[in-house]
């Protein structure tokens, strides 16, 4: 059973890209394969056979950038519509299963809602199931990880609803 795998891209050509794959086995013996494999998929798994144990997780060397985010409503915004959605735009493609947006009014329970993510725009939207309370400070926590498993910094901010 493998512990780690690293795929280093040697060329940017789409077809027959050169890679060097290294993995550690359960007894900490390292093995390296250099050759041509088509690519790693979006989850970071090598595509092809004979390049390591099945299910070995790989990351493309150089893809260790932490994703960043911008959001609406803005931090410390006031007079925000009580029916506003929380919209987060990511700097890169995200793993939809790793995205989380928590919304909670000051002194209240977590707000239920629907979370959607659109890959083409890299936008996650939280649509509250009910109208937010009037003139209330709302706390939002946003977290996520990209398709390579690089986690973003958890972002906690607040805004205040209008009447």
Main traits of this protein?
163 residues, mainly beta, Immunoglobulin-like, 2 domains, four-stranded mixed beta sheet, four-stranded antiparallel beta sheet
* Class based on secondary structure composition and strand pairing: mainly beta
Strand content: 35-45%
Work out the helix count. 0
Q: Average pLDDT, to the nearest integer?
A: 76
The radius of gyration computed from the alpha-carbon positions, rounded to a whole number of angstroms, is: 21 Å
Broad CATH class of the largest domain: Mainly Beta
CATH architecture classification name of the largest domain:
Sandwich
Strand order of the largest sheet: 3-2-1-4
Number of domains: 2
What's the CATH topology name of the largest domain? Immunoglobulin-like
- Give the overall form: elongated
Largest sheet: 4 strands, mixed
Distance between the termini: 58 Å
Low-confidence stretches: 1-19, 48-62
The helix-strand sequence is: EEEEEEEEEEE
Estimate the helix proportion, in percent: under 10%
Would you mind describing this structure in some detail?
Helix content is 0%, strand content 37%. The protein folds into 2 domains: 56 residues, no CATH class; 92 residues, Immunoglobulin-like (Sandwich), CATH 2.60.40.1220. It contains no helices and 11 strands. Strand 8 and strand 9 form a beta hairpin. The N terminus is likely disordered. With 163 residues, the chain is an all-beta fold.
């Amino acid at each position: 059973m493998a512990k780690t795998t690293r795929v280093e891209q040697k060329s940017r050509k789409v077809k027959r890209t050169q890679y060097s794959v290294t993995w550690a086995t359960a007894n900490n013996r390292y093995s390296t394969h250099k050759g041509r494999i088509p690519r790693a998929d979006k989850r970071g798994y090598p595509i092809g056979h004979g390049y390591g144990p099945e299910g070995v997780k790989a990351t493309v060397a150089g893809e260790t950038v932490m994703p960043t985010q911008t959001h609406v409503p803005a931090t410390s915004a006031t007079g925000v519509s009580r029916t506003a959605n929380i919209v987060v735009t990511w700097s890169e493609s995200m793993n939809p299963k790793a995205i989380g947006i928590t919304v909670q009014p000051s002194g209240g329970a977590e707000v239920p809602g629907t979370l959607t993510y659109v890959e083409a725009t890299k936008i996650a939207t939280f649509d509250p199931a009910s109208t937010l309370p009037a003139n209330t400070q709302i706390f939002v926590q946003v977290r996520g990880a990209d398709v390579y498993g690089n986690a973003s910094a958890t972002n906690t901010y607040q805004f205040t609803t209008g009447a």
